[in-house]
Amino acid sequence: MEELIGLLVLLAILVIVIKGGIQTFQRNWILAIIMLLLLTPIWVVWAIVEIFMDKPVKQPIQVQMQPIEVTVNQNNKEG
To answer: With contact defined as beta carbons under 8 Å apart, do 35 and 42 qualify?
Structure first.
């Protein structure tokens, strides 16, 4: 019975780390890869914290085009 409870707790922790890990890659994939490869324990803590944070939202880049006024002064002096 104790093995079953331990297995369920381990499974729950694994699911939390996987869901949080997905959010870490959505938030900053370059940092997530570096931390996963070099600093795995810190990445696991980050993944667990991500479960309690808002989901990362990718906002489209909005470019506002404004008209440009150009004034050209031309002086032709011959003489």
So the answer is: yes
